[in-house]
TrEMBL record, chain A:
Natural source organism: Paenibacillus rhizosphaerae
Signal peptide: none
Compartments where located: Membrane
GO CC terms: plasma membrane
Official protein name in the record: Sulfate transport system permease protein
Purpose: Part of the ABC transporter complex CysAWTP (TC 3.A.1.6.1) involved in sulfate/thiosulfate import. Probably responsible for the translocation of the substrate across the membrane.
Assembly and oligomerization: The complex is composed of two ATP-binding proteins (CysA), two transmembrane proteins (CysT and CysW) and a solute-binding protein (CysP).
Automatic annotation (TrEMBL), chain B:
Name under which the protein is recorded: Carnitine transport ATP-binding protein OpuCA
Domain ABC transporter, first and last residues per copy: 3-233
Molecular-function GO terms, alphabetical: ABC-type quaternary ammonium compound transporting activity; ABC-type sulfate transporter activity; ATP binding; ATP hydrolysis activity
Assembly and oligomerization: The complex is composed of two ATP-binding proteins (OpuCA), two transmembrane proteins (OpuCB and OpuCD) and a solute-binding protein (OpuCC).
Catalytic activity line of the entry: a quaternary ammonium(out) + ATP + H2O = a quaternary ammonium(in) + ADP + phosphate + H(+)
PROSITE patterns with a match to the protein in the record: ABC_TRANSPORTER_1 (PS00211), ABC_TRANSPORTER_2 (PS50893)
Enzyme class: translocase
GO cellular component terms given for this protein: ATP-binding cassette (ABC) transporter complex
Stretch forming the signal peptide: none
Entry keyword set: ATP-binding, Nucleotide-binding, Sulfate transport, Translocase, Transport
InterPro entries for the chain: AAA+_ATPase, ABC_SmlMolc_Importer, ABC_transporter-like_ATP-bd, ABC_transporter-like_CS, Mo/tungstate-bd_C_term_dom, P-loop_NTPase, Sulph_transpt1, Transp-assoc_OB_typ2
EC code: 7.6.2.9
NCBIfam families: 3a0106s01 (TIGR00968)
Length: 265, 354
């Protein structure tokens, strides 16, 4: 009985993960190494990968800063009323509950050319939706809980006393943060960064809605794969997907390493 | 430093945690804050440190109002109950933290830290991390860290709570000596009245957010101002109706006066042990407990159970044995007032000269 379960688990694992991955690798090399090179050297492929890269970098920087700030406010912000803190705390989880496509749609509705805010920015020549800023906002929306939820428990665990001790010894906020708080939350932040990179690398739904998937303009790696598949351009789709998968695997390894470091701390 | 507190109040939501507290502390004194759990001791300490903002009231150091000063500017040292050491810093860096923040020159930092390491008996441990230290050693590090920037006021929140009884005793006298040597005004919170009585120049009893009494340990023991203080300090038995006690009938006046009697106010023994037998009552020994250096005797007098100690030098009593009981004095209190009363029969009106 137990054996059967184990076999079944392996089977599911194989069917869901290994088989498609193998198929993808094979698909990418169907036209040989040259075919892979050609697929990746297409201008739209290069542009899409660049777009993804830019989004990952921008979102990771923003999310790390915003997420850490949010976590610190939620855990230490005694100046906020308890009610406000509880409200913000549940808002943080919103992206987990809302489908990314809906999230993207909300951004289009709020900031698109049809809305007052969107129209205002359009007038001053700053396009948000169907442009880079919108895509960053959409990805930020999707990744927001990752950093906050990594850092908050660590802050709660270390408590405020070390920081209070630092303040009675004459250290102000910034010194206290760097000398006392940061060393304790460092590994949680790194773990959060890895999660954020992985998530923004693979984000599809929200970006698709917000970007409009305009080739050579707002197309990202994931939306390019989607388009290639639509066009039965199997080799190209697999090639780009392979690049994404390679990144994901290295991130996974990095994540394992970060997790171990975080545990030993 | 001279500390002055006037009309201090603190609410946590609807809860009134500190109620109209007044006190003054002289320079160089060591003050013990004593009281039951949840009484507001930590809250008072945190307000002095500037870690908590009072709702109303004044805090003055050297006569200057410091309410608006942040903790960084108050020149205080704070030792937390669980030490709150910087766990990713070595002992040396922990102690040096306050000096580094103040941009003290490197060589001076080293000298000062080494001086404190010597003083606190931590020599050889400078390179260790807090996790690699015992509870008592951590306590010393916390202490050295707080002292390093030469604060004018040292606040200690239950500094010995997490340390076992024996080392606690050692650390206690060590702390007392150290504070005397450094000559720093200090306030420490404790649950342990022996600790407060032994170490402090003055004790403040805090109960339900109020300062019940402030005074030297001896004053508080001898003349408790409120029934709470009387019951809280020392051991005691309460007799609901003081008039039923022999020698206190008149003093107790009307009904509703209760008596609080400490073991050392009571004497038990055979009839031959008392000079004025008429002042004693009859009682029966109920229990005897050996307390190492003396007997603890529970005796029943009428409907009351009283407790006292008896020297090992005297005849050993037996449970069930009838004895004479003399209540030398009692702390009487009713709804209006409380006072100390001596046994009126003790002074023989017609002394018989033998
Ligand atoms: N941050 C807070 N929020 C809400 N209530 C608090 C807070 N801090 C303290 N209290 C309440 O105020 C009261 C006094 O607390 P405080 O910590 O000063 O007591 P304490 O005398 O130090 O007790 P203990 O001896 O147990 O440490 C308690 O009833 C406590 O629940
Ligand atoms: Mg306390």
């Amino acid at each position: 009985m137990k054996k059967l379960w184990i076999t079944l688990t392996y089977l599911v694992f194989f069917l869901l993960l290994i088989a498609p991955l193998g198929k993808m690798v094979m698909g990418a090399f169907e036209g040989g190494l040259g075919g892979l090179g050609d697929a990746l050297a297409r201008p739209e492929a290069l542009h899409a990968l660049m777009m993804t890269g830019l989004i990952v970098v921008t979102v990771t920087v923003l999310n790390t800063l915003l997420g850490m700030m949010m976590a610190i406010y939620l855990v230490r912000g005694s100046w906020m009323s308890g009610g406000l803190r509880r409200f913000l705390n549940s808002i943080v989880d919103l992206p987990y509950a809302v489908s990314p496509v809906i999230g993207g749609l909300m951004i289009v509705l709020l900031l698109g050319p049809g809305s007052a805010v969107g129209a205002f920015f359009e007038d001053i020549g700053f396009k948000i939706v169907y442009a880079f800023p919108g895509m960053v906002i959409a990805t930020l929306f999707v990744t927001f809980p990752l950093m906050v939820r990594e850092v908050m428990p660590v802050l709660q665990e270390i408590g405020a006393q070390q920081e209070e001790a630092a303040s009675t010894l004459g250290a102000y906020g910034w010194t206290t943060f760097w000398k006392v708080t940061w060393p304790s939350i460092r590994w949680a932040v790194i773990y959060g960064i890895v999660l954020t990179v992985a998530r923004s690398l693979g984000e599809f739904g929200a970006v698709l809605v917000v970007s409009g998937n305009i080739i050579n303009r707002t197309q990202t790696a994931t939306t390019l794969v989607y388009q290639d598949v639509e066009n039965f351009n199997v080799i190209s789709a697999n090639s780009v997907a392979l690049v994404l998968a390679a990144f994901s695997v290295s991130l996974l390894l990095l994540m394992e390493w970060a997790k171990k470091r975080r545990e030993v701390r | 430093m001279h500390v002055e507190v006037r009309g201090l109040n603190k609410h946590f939501g609807d809860f009134h945690a500190v109620k109209d507290v007044h006190f003054g502390i002289e320079k160089g004194h060591l003050i013990g804050l004593l009281g039951p759990s949840g009484g507001g001791k930590t809250s008072i300490l945190r307000m002095l440190a500037g870690l908590e903002t009072p709702d109303s009231g004044e805090i003055r150091f050297h006569g200057e109002l410091v309410n608006a000063l942040p903790p960084q500017e108050r020149g205080i040292g704070f030792v937390f109950q669980n030490y709150a050491l910087f766990k990713h810093m070595t002992v040396f860096d922990n102690i040096a933290f306050g000096l580094k923040v103040k941009k003290t020159p490197k060589s001076q930092i080293k000298d000062r830290v080494m001086e404190l390491v010597e003083l606190t008996g931590l020599a050889g441990f400078e390179k260790r991390y807090p996790q690699q230290l015992s509870g008592g050693q951590r306590q010393r590090v916390a202490f050295a860290r707080a002292l390093a920037p030469e604060p004018q006021l040292l606040l200690l929140d239950e500094p010995f709570a997490a340390i076992d009884a024996k080392i606690r005793q050692e650390l206690r006298s060590w702390l007392r000596e150290l504070i005397e040597r450094v000559g720093i005004t200090s306030i420490f919170v404790t649950h342990d009245q022996d600790e407060a009585i032994e170490v402090a120049d003055e004790i403040m009893i805090i109960n339900q957010g109020r300062l019940e009494q402030k005074g030297t340990p001896w004053d508080i023991y001898k003349e408790p101002k409120t029934p709470f203080v009387a019951t809280f300090i020392g051991e005691s038995t309460v007799v609901e109706n003081a008039r039923e006690l022999k020698g206190f009938e008149e003093a107790a006046g009307g009904s509703g006066t209760r008596a609080l009697i400490r073991p050392e106010y009571i004497e038990v023994g055979g009839p031959d042990e008392f000079r004025v037998l008429s002042a004693t009552e009859e009682g029966i020994v109920r229990h005897l407990h050996f307390r190492g250096s003396e007997w603890m005797v529970e005796v029943e007098v009428g409907s009351h159970k009283l407790m006292t100690y008896r020297s090992l030098e005297k005849d050993t009593l037996q449970p069930g044995q009838p004895v004479r009981v003399l209540v030398h004095r009692a702390y009487l209190f009713n709804d209006e007032r409380s006072w100390i009363e001596e046994n009126r029969l003790k002074v023989d009106p017609m002394p018989v000269i033998i």
